[in-house]
Amino acid sequence: AVSFGQIVKAGEPVFAAATNAVLLKDIDHPLVYASLLPIIGGVGLASLKELSFTWTALVAASAANQAAALKNVVSKGVMGKPWAKNLGPQNTYAV
Asked: How do the pLDDT tens digits run along the chain, 95 residues long?
């Protein structure tokens, strides 16, 4: 269901933090990761109460989260390059 997809998509910051740590080797302060625990708990609790829970929807929403996190982390990595300083807003979004 759409509502279940939105619940799982709320966990995108968790995927972004993990992808950032793995790909860019950018490890944040432990309190940053601790602040993600309420998100994980909230998504888990809301998922338990979802009447239309399916594993297919969970996997699809998690894949969408990972794809969005990957796009953001790769864009962040590119924007750190010297040649990327001259990119305009449209080109920055395209990267």
From this structure: 567 778 888 888 999 999 999 988 889 899 999 999 999 888 888 888 777 778 888 888 899 999 999 988 888 887 777 877 777 767 766 66
Task: Read off the pTM.
Answer: 0.76
Q: Calculate the CA 15 to chain-centre distance.
A: 4
Q: How many CA atoms lie within 13 A of 2 on its CB side?
A: 0
Cα 10 off chain centre by? 9
Q: Where are the beta strands (DSSP E) in the chain?
A: none
CA distance 94 to 61: 23
Tokens of 83: 């040649």
